[in-house]
Amino acid sequence: MILLDKENNVFTLHTQNTTYQMKADQHSVLVHTYYGPRVAGGDLSYLVRYADRACAPNPSEAGLDRTYSLNTIPQEYSTCGVGDFRLPSIELELPCGSRSADLRYAGCQLRRGKYALEGLPAFRGSEEEAETLVLLLEDAAAQVRVELYYGVFEPLDLITRAVRVVNFGEGPIRLRQCASLCLDFLRSDLDLITFNGCHLMERSPDRAPLRSGVQGVDSIRGASSHQHNPFVVLCDHDAKEDYGLCYGALLLYSGNFQISAEGSQYDNTRLVMGINRYQFCWTLEPGQSFTAPEGALVCSPSGLGQMSRQYHRAIREHLIQDPYEGGRRPVLINNWEATYFDFDADKLVDFAKAAAPLGVELLVMDDGWFGKRDDDNSGLGDWTVNERKLPGGLKALVPRIQELGMSFGIWIEPEMVSEDSQLYREHPDWAFRVPSRTPARGRNQLVLDFSRPEVRQHVYGQIKAVLSSADIAYVKWDMNRSLSDVWSAALPPNRQGEVYHRYVLGVYEMLDQLRRDFPHMLIEGCAGGGGRFDAGMLYYTPQIWCSDNTDAIDRLRIQYGTSFCYPVSAMGAHVSAVPNEANGRTTPIEARGTVAMSGTFGYELDPNKTTQEEKEVIKQQVAFFKEHYHLIQRGGYYRLTDPFANGPYTAWEQVSSDRREALISLVATSLQAAPPFQTLRLKGLDPQLTYQVNGGDSYPGDVLMNAGYPLPLFHGDYQSLQLYLSAI
Question: Is 242 tagged catalytic?
């Protein structure tokens, strides 16, 4: 619900459990007054107090009032160079050389439904599901208008933010910074949680109290990165899963980003989130505009778990565009870890013959099917079927797979090129390369300049022809290196600061075209595993390969950290062979299945090399997953333990929306002799209902949540347990 008090210029956004408010003050500065648990309303600007602070400049409108300074009041979109020395949200380079920006309130608009962003991912909402508020700010001297967009999803406690900058002057300006949101708090006693890591160990939570000065995370790799995720949490020091005030801030962007929190001298906090300032400079000619990526806020007065579940629901229902919406995505098997580049059509058919009787429904042919591609040193960019490996192409192979009752998918890496390729020999200038420099290589490949339409069109034309040649049900879109040597031959020197962002826009455009041309095809994102696991990609790819590390025990931590924002249905997760290629660990197939089942679920092994006993386990796992698909993929997600705490086990739970079903999953991670008895307390159940556990004993919901469920004594490494609860 959006309430406008136009007489006093007070703007209040109510969700089911939270309130967000702004006010244009006596000097037309848009002041942030409140964000937190829902309150009745009224003008909350009384919370903003004023004092004469030394060395704090005063705007000319304040006259002799030395208590009014932009450096000390909470702003809705912070300015630059005009008296506020904290983190700016915008920086303009004007024709005169000035880099200041002074924004004042100029009007508002209220609309039914959720705004959309051209060329950028954004949450979607109908007129019945969401409302939009647009606040207009202007810098009269610079002749620049800034439009602040707010989308309100009341039942989800979700507020989205976006920014559009318009040059209404007569000369060009350069945009040096344009943040997606700014959030000021009149307190600094908060913890900052970020999600960090590396290739093979992504999105580990890192929690620390805010300190004085600037802290945060960013990426300059051209992608959101393995190292840092564009999602952070600010919360009370004592906030836990089920209590405490928590604020989540999510950026829907897949390129260079920056999220910074500043603890100010007067114990206030400012959070600024958006495109990274690194090598960013966007020219706006008269009449042109620039749109920043969307940010999404969730405030939870009831702890981290509730915040996560609100994000999960919002992403599933209002961001992801799933070709299987309302149905079930297929259980797949990928040949990569089983064969690598060493395969041909007959080997793939044999692979499918072994997988189909196990209940697997989709065979994915990974890297190596195209061009001259027998290793990772050649072939990228030549997206034509290698008929030496696949005689007759996909139109000959796919029917052979379908005859076995399985559908077919392929792997692609459109953004990359090998120097040993026909594409590179014909168009070397299509790859990023700084003049007079030899470019750096990653995985012995270069990056195509996707900021250029002709590059995208050529690559897409090849891939579309392949996908149109047969009945392809799935595509895995990969990206296996970070960007370097970023320079475009298509742009003049003074516009090279646009290349990183134009690259991301080009990726989005091509993904959107792929989705529209093949609306029934499932697209899975990937970037060396989890190097581009972000909400921007989820708008185009309903699932993302969570990590190249498929070890079940490491995945407990990776999927735990990912779950703070992203739903189970988005996490690509497979059962792979042991010893695991990432760390050499051997875990039981039961544990591997339990962990992968809290993702999209599939297999990454050679079914011809499994024992008969393992085949029976796989059949049972696939049948169980299919039976409980909607509970697993769409149920409320509860973290019951923290795997980083190194306890005896890791446990989590999924609960149906009507609370009549639940699935508890547990993996024992440490083993000792003479272990103590353990009792697991559950969450999210209906205390008034009685639940039958795995078709046996029954317990009241309040008993299971408060007294707990007695766990068995585990014997042997990495044992697992799944408990299915059904109300009776």
Answer: no
